[in-house]
Amino acid sequence: MTRQLVEMKDLTVAQAGAARPELDRFSLTVAAGETVVLLGEADCGKDAVLRAAGGLLVRADEVSGTIRFGEGEAVPASRKPRPTVRTAMLPAAAQRPLISRASAASQLVRVVARRLDCPRGAAREELRAALARFPGAPSLEAIDRAPPALDAIAFSYALMAAATATTPDLVLCDHPFADLSPAASRLLSDALKDEQQRLGFAILYAARVPQSVARLGGRTIVLRQGRVVEEGEAARLMAGQTHAYTQSLFNALPQDLADRPRRAARGEPLLQVQGLVLKPDPKRPGRTKGAIGFELRRGASIALVGEDGSGRRALMRAVLGLERKPGRVLFDAVDLNLLSETMTLRLRRRVAFVAGADDALDPRMTLWDTVDEPLRAHLALSRELTAGYREAALKRVGLASHDGRRTVATLSPFDKRRLQVARAIVAAPSLVVVDEPLRGLDAIGQTTMRDLLADFRVEQQAAFLVITADFAVAEALADEAMVFSDGAMVERGAIRHLKANPKEAATRALIEASAALKPLPPAEPAV
Q1: Which of 212, 213, 334, 475 is geometrically suited to a Cys-Cys bond with 207, CB 3.0 to 4.6 A?
Q2: How far apart are CA 517 and CA 527, in angstroms?
Q3: How many Å apart are CA 491 and CA 493, to the nearest integer?
Q4: Contact 410, 358 (CB under 8 A)
Q5: What is the assigned CATH class of domain 269-514?
């Protein structure tokens, strides 16, 4: 008989004064070795489920229903019981779960020691062994640095090793791979599934996008506004969905926008790159083999596709005059290498940025000030004209109903992205640099951002330079792609042609990671 780890019945979690409960009469059973994915937008209730399963309900939570752990008795959830089964939390590296100034290794050793109730020396060896079980994971010595010095994949491996080193019965996954590229997310998901097969723990996984359903398999529960709207095995949900909301989540993945009406990119090139060398060849000093050359016209879009550290952002910095590289960069027929810093800054005013990083905007500024800033900095407009442009831009991105006196720090990640688009709209740029615009958003947020950016490009005829590791995003927002690996461009062409006939291994890997995913077959729960 399969052992039950957690059973929740009619669980309701609410905050005092909230318009609706965070979780409303929710029931769930998790068996040993089972995988359960909680899928939904932000504030759908999945975070409350993880808190309840981990015994992390706080004093402010008003709770009803019952919770039972393991072989124990069901107890009122209002008592906020602690688990009697071994649980481990797996957060996302982007959540910054560790102190930034201390060594990641030392902090994780303390976590393992506390969970296993063992000396730190023994915990250190347990963490070392857990890291060694993951192919491609860093060594314990490699993570003996402050967390900001680790790349996202290495940090994710370290967090996963710390969670599994405690031999848990249940791993609670709080969007652990949501902010990573498709290739990195698939790599780490596979590693987590392999460790689950070895150790037999159950997984309760909070997810924003359906890709997690396909990667992890198991059972999926779709939540909306605290209630279950659909539930089933991953294979069934991937094949077809019953509820309209579930259908909207699965249909909200980046799609080809080739059928959208677009004006032809004509006229003189806005951006010309000639013989640009990102990484000199040590074997051929002075040679220009691997030099990059391309043109970008107004209204056109090129995607720079590659993993972090592949060279795509090095090209972006060279194009904007932030770094000097061998070769020529002409912006509107002006050679940036011949300009003074002052003149380069003036040209850069014609460039707008939309980034996936939450710190791209000043958190202390209000919504109104954030959108007004480009107008005040570059144009001497009256207060009435400035307000008119601002309100029109906020309306286009769906933020007109927000209180303009709110600070950026109070906004959700989705609203911050939309605010960046509004700021770009009023700036009327010639070139828009779009850097991982969909990363970390839920499925519906991704669709909204994709549509906003596509409409912006069509209506204002701005040239787009799209930086991404996701070929699906590149296909949705660009016409051509340049693929980067190991500091150099390895392949270039129309995105449809690249997908149909990739010539380089790096291109094939990126395309496969972003391709439509097939769900894993249902796994038999451990007995």
Answers
A1: 212
A2: 29
A3: 7
A4: no
A5: alpha beta
CATH architecture classification, 1-86+168-251: 3-Layer(aba) Sandwich (3.40)
Average model confidence (pLDDT) across the chain? 88
Averaged pLDDT for residues 322-333: 86
- Cα distance between residue 113 and residue 119, in whole Å: 6
pLDDT score of 162 more than 50 = yes
The span from the CA of 67 to the CA of 87, in Å, is 15
* Torsion over CA: 216, 221, 223, 226 (sign): negative
Q: Do domains 1-86+168-251 and 269-514 have the same CATH topology?
A: yes
Instruction: Say if residue 43's pLDDT is above 80.
Output: yes
**Whole-number Å distance between alpha carbons of 378 and 429:** 12
Q: Are the beta carbons of 124 and 140 closer than 8 angstroms? A: yes
Angle at 380 between CA 378 and CA 382, to 5 degrees: 130
Three-class secondary structure of residue 375 per DSSP: helix
Mean pLDDT to the nearest integer, 385-407: 92
Higher pLDDT, 249 or 286: 249
Query: Are the C-beta atoms of residues 351 and 343 closer than 8 Å to each other?
Result: no
Nearest one of 249, 257, 245, 256 to 444, comparing CA atoms: 249
| The pLDDT value given to residue 235 | 87
Which of 39-43, 285-289, 481-485 is predicted with the least confidence, judged by mean pLDDT?
285-289
Domain ranges of the chain: 1-86+168-251, 92-167, 269-514
Distance CA 323, CA 346 (A): 16
Q: How far is CA 446 from CA 323, 355, 438, 495, 498, in A?
A: 31, 13, 5, 20, 23
